Amino acid sequence: MRKPNTESITMPSLSSLQGLGSTVKGVSDDKNVVQMALDRLIPFKDHPYKDGGEKHIIKLMDSIRENGVSTPALARPIENGNFELITGHCRKIACERLGLTTMPVIVKNITHEEATVLMVDDNLTQRKTILPSEMARAYKMRFEAIKSPGYKKTPNGTALSRMSKELDKSEKSIQRLVKIADLTDGLLAMLDKNVFGLTQAHDLSFLNYGEQHIVELQLEQKKSLDMSQSAKIKELAKKGHINPDSVSEILDEPKLPRPRATRVNQKHIGEGLDANRLVFVPSGVIDNCFPKNTSQDDITRTIVTLLTEWKERGERDGIAI
Question: Stretch 111-117: mean pLDDT, rounded?
Answer without folding.
Answer: 89
